[in-house]
Amino acid sequence: MATSKELSDFLAQVERRAFKQAAYAVRDDHTALDIVQDAMMRLAEKYGTRPATEFPMLFQRILQNAILDHFRRNKVRNLWTTLFSSFSSADDEEDYDPLETLAGEGDKADDPVATLDRAQTMKLIETAISRLPSRQREAFVLRYWQELDVAETANIMGCSQGSVKTHCSRAVHTLSALLQAKGVQL
Amino acid sequence: MNRAVNSHATNELTPQQLAKIKQLLDDSAIEIDNKTLRDLERSRKQAVAVMENRTLVAELQPAATGWRYALQLSQHGNYRLWLMALVLLAVLSAVLGSKITRNNGPIDTDTLVLASELPPEAYTDKEFVAWLDHTSRL
Prior knowledge:
The complex is a heterodimer of chains A (186) and B (138). Chain A is mainly α. Chain A has helices at 4-26, 29-47, 55-81, 98-106, 112-115, 118-130, 134-145, 150-157, 161-182. Chain B is mostly helical. Chain B has a domain at 80-138.
């Protein structure tokens, strides 16, 4: 059984990444904070007595579910407000093309390769990740940022390992295309 | 650099590029503004407090269960009668005790005088008192 110090240490270790993960998904810092807080509380309430070694996987799963809950709530809310909501792309996310949304921003810089500094590159990558379809973003972040293996990622995402590989492959393709379109060389 | 260009051409990212992206994401997580960090810290402390409360409740659970069990027994058996008898006994003891304490002083003095080896008259005898003074000075 984990102690409160172990829980505190674990949360202190992952809270920043969790916030950024949520922010990439919902594209709003306040909402991301609410989601992370909700995930922390759920972990403490429901799984606080579990061994500390189980916290990383449990917390990732809770966080992903909290993000999904947010989108479900928004989807229901948006159904009543407008048919053309900003989150309606969740229905046809596989057809979503991030290049279309970034095309306008690309026109601002005459020579991005020469002028983009680290901060701009970071911002660009963050934007690109946040505009990936949700399942691709989830798979990409878990595999390449959190460095979980395929089985762990599949467990958290609640899908097969083959689906994880497909999502990751598509995410890498999309990101590569975005970086290429923006002239970013890493 | 060539590898990067080649990978762009094939719409793939090399492990080095993925590592670079990871590094940039790590940096972005480090550079979160102070207000957000304070909010995260507050959320973390709230979560830990919830866990500590839950732990405390879990520790007190056996005692609470014991008391509940005893209460159920007292309700279903004749334990209420016993409880009333105990209360009555306690009240009676208190009343009797106070009476005994109030009469204790004179009784004890009389008992001591009567239990002494000396007859009571000895204490009124002047010669005996004088002898007692002389002996106590030695």
